[in-house]
Amino acid sequence: MSNIYETTMIVKPDLANDQLKNLTNSIESFFSENNLTIGYKEDWGIKNLKFSIRKYSKGSFKFIRFTSDTTFPKKLDNFLKFNSDCLRFLIIKSDNGLEDPTQQINKEN
Amino acid sequence: MKKNINISNDELLKIDYKNSQILKKFINENGKIVPQRVTNMSRSLHTKITNSIKQARFLSLI
Q1: Are residues B62 and A50, on separate chains, in Cβ contact within 8 Å?
Q2: What pLDDT digit, counting tens, does each position of A75-108 carry?
Q3: How many Cβ contacts (< 8 angstroms) between chains A and B?
């Protein structure tokens, strides 16, 4: 049985371009290892955090939506937990369609 | 005291942790969740609101 899931990640704001590419490549390769593709992607940009996380007061937000079976989100949770560039993440089942835009893109800060 | 919240039916359908502007209507100035007896929302809507406020707090969007 397949569902639509969505994840938002807070990534370190001071990453260099190469490190960001490495991170996105590793996530994409992890999806392709499990025979899945990323359905929808968004970049919310760098925002001020309301409280500091691991001594960072800013964070860059990434958003991903995908369809998968019920076992894959646990694997993704384990993968992101041991990633040192990812400060915090949330994986939940989505109520929206696969390619609906969110309200956060056009917002500043 | 009942509180009058200006919110349309369209906005009530869009309640989500990403929609932080709508969620801010259900929070007082200290950041606490306004109780159900004040806002006059139904039980099912109020649980949806509280769950999405807690998810938005975790990601530090509120």
Answers
A1: yes
A2: 999 999 998 899 999 999 988 888 888 877 766 6
A3: 29
Q: What is the ipTM of this complex?
A: 0.85
Is A67:A94 a contact under the CB 8 Å cutoff? no
DSSP letter, residue B21: H
- Whether the model pTM is above 0.90: no
Question: Where residue A67 sits, what CATH number does that domain have?
Answer: 3.30.70.60
Count up the domains in chain A and report the number. 1
Which residues of chain B fall short of a pLDDT of 50?
none
Task: Determine the CATH number of domain B9-58.
Answer: 4.10.640.10
Test the A interface: residue of B53, B61, B62 with most A CBs within 10 Å: B61
CA B58-B59-B62 angle, to 5 degrees, is 85
